[in-house]
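I would like you to sit down with the record closing this message with an eye to the fold:
=====
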Amino acid sequence: MIVFLITFPAEAKIEVLSNDSDIVIQRSLESLRDLDLQTWQLIVYPKIGNDKQLILRIVGFVGSLRLNHPKQLEVTSGIKTWVLEDITLKNPELVNDARDAAAEFALEPLIQDLQNNRPLRLFLDGGFNELPVPPYVVNEWRTIKSLSLEDGY
């Protein structure tokens, strides 16, 4: 697997991955802290296929994200609220992973609705009470969406 890093202003990082099938995928990988100072990795990547869906994977330390799926992820920004569908059980790798350290959500409804790079707050019952997402990370997510459309995912 080949990994390239593309950096943008404000320390944003988009990784470009290439697998054995020569499929190139861009993804965003950020480590953020919730208000309880727990660190979480947020990974956004396009699902390969016809539906052109963006996936948000949230990864905690092993055992820190033991959830009874499905759980909804609530996202707020100002007076707006989005509820993202838990799609963890649709990923065989996560279903068969005994570490229970990750959950996945359909990010597409949020990205389609956002018109700018606004700060977000994530709430996951059983995971974290409030996880702030700064505007530069939202910019990465929106960039991943536009790159995946250009590449025909």
Notes: The longest strand covers residues 24-33. Confidence is low (pLDDT under 50) at residues 1-12.
